[in-house]
Write a structure and sequence with these properties.
This is nitric oxide dioxygenase. It is built from eleven helices and twelve strands. The chain has 394 residues and is an alpha/beta fold.
Length: 394
């Protein structure tokens, strides 16, 4: 909770800081990478930095956190903090790195806002920063304790499956022959690779296999037509990784996991490669003998582009009360629909808990349709591949 004096100062200066937050985060990253170039090569996603999406995500999270402190002084935005903390833990972020971020972020604020940053203003926003940072550090500490600590572990590729022209599934086992920890359906792992220029880049991929298997499975979509470095890791995995190759994987993280009472109706909506966490969820539900209604919705360019389609429909078919609705932009087959996902004539039962994964415009559209059908916003959960721009885009 902010002190009364800091809350008044943050409220008065939030419009100015919010209006300049894009420039502030741009200056921040420039300063950070100038002082610590290894962070850009070996930790931060170079594609997201080049596209500016990481700056947007950071700006959105800061503004959202400060606004929440003012509007709800008696509670923290735990859902937002958990999402960020899981991503940080998958990357192995350490507590001391928050001091580095603080140094360069507040220098950037001073550069952009100049004389407006009085000692009182600096102290108030310093309080905001450390409330957020210390909350994240605490959650990340708990996650590390549960997972056995930060860091990536070598895993050997034992099988490669070409799912579609642009999606490949890799099945991996620990290179040291050690045990494989379980995971919760919907979680992801960080995958580290060393690229041709020597940079060590890390990306997150949802686990697309069934929980409880003795191997880990990820399904990777190749990014086409994007300026380098966007897509550099997916293209590397497609072009160079075959059985026998060794990749570095983190332990599983992520907060898009099945929860709620066992008799709760579920809706699993995905588009494109967003199908991957849904496969794990359906496999888990089938293995657990889930009997409540499950509505499966998926949108894709065409049936040929629908990765893991056989698994998608097979796992749904093992559930006693499941309905499957497939939408394709072209080449729709009998029993499927042409066009974008539309829930207009799909029954959504009262009390439904929904899980969404796919491009942000798709999830925004589905969320709006679900709320219009009476689904409580608190019962709609989502996963974004890459920086979470949901808050950044308002």
């Amino acid at each position: 909770m902010l002190t009364e004096q800091s809350a008044a100062t943050v409220r008065a200066t939030l419009p100015a800081v919010g209006g300049a937050i894009g420039e502030i985060t741009e200056r921040f990253y420039a300063r950070l990478f100038n002082a610590h170039p290894d962070l850009l090569r070996n930790l931060f996603n170079r594609g997201n930095q080049a596209a500016g999406t990481q700056r947007q995500a950071l700006a959105g999270s800061i503004a959202a956190f400060a606004t929440h402190l003012l509007d709800h002084p008696d509670r923290r935005p735990d859902a937002m903090l958990a999402r960020i903390a899981h991503k940080h833990a998958s990357l192995g972020v350490a507590p001391e790195q928050y001091d580095v971020v603080h140094e360069h972020l507040f220098a950037a604020i001073a550069e952009v806002l100049g004389e407006a940053v009085t000692p009182e203003v600096a102290a108030a926003w310093d309080e905001v920063y450390w409330l957020m940072a210390n909350a994240l550090i605490a959650v990340e500490k708990r996650l590390y304790e549960e997972s056995g600590g930060p860091g990536l572990r070598p895993w050997e590729v034992v099988e490669r499956v070409e799912e579609t022209a642009d999606v490949v599934t890799l099945r991996l086992r620990p290179a040291d022959g050690g045990p494989v920890a379980g995971f919760r359906a919907g979680q992801y792992v960080s995958v580290g690779v060393t690229l041709a220029d020597g940079a060590r880049q890390i990306r997150q991929y949802s686990l697309s296999g069934a929980p409880g298997e003795t191997v880990r499975q990820i399904s990777v979509k190749r990014v086409h037509g994007a300026a380098s470095p966007d897509g550099e890791v997916s293209n590397h995995l497609h072009a160079h990784v075959r059985p026998g190759a060794v990749l570095e994987l983190s332990e599983p993280y992520g907060d898009l996991v099945l929860s709620g009472a066992p008799d709760t109706p579920l809706l699993l909506a995905s588009a494109g490669i967003g199908v991957t966490p849904m496969i794990a969820m359906l496999a888990d539900l089938a293995a657990g003998g889930h009997r409540a209604p499950v509505t499966v919705v998926h949108g894709d360019r065409s049936p040929a582009d629908h990765a893991l389609r056989a698994d998608h429909t097979a796992y749904a078919g093992k559930l006693p009360d499941a309905s499957v609705h497939l939408f394709y932009e072209r080449d729709a087959e009998p029993g499927t629909r042409t066009g974008l996902v539309d829930l207009a004539d799909i029954a959504v039962r009262p009390g439904t808990r929904a899980y969404l994964c796919g491009p942000l415009p798709f999830m925004r559209a589905v969320r709006a349709q679900l709320t219009a059908k009476g689904v409580a916003p608190a019962d709609i959960h989502y996963e974004v591949f890459g920086p979470d721009l949901w808050l950044a885009k308002g």
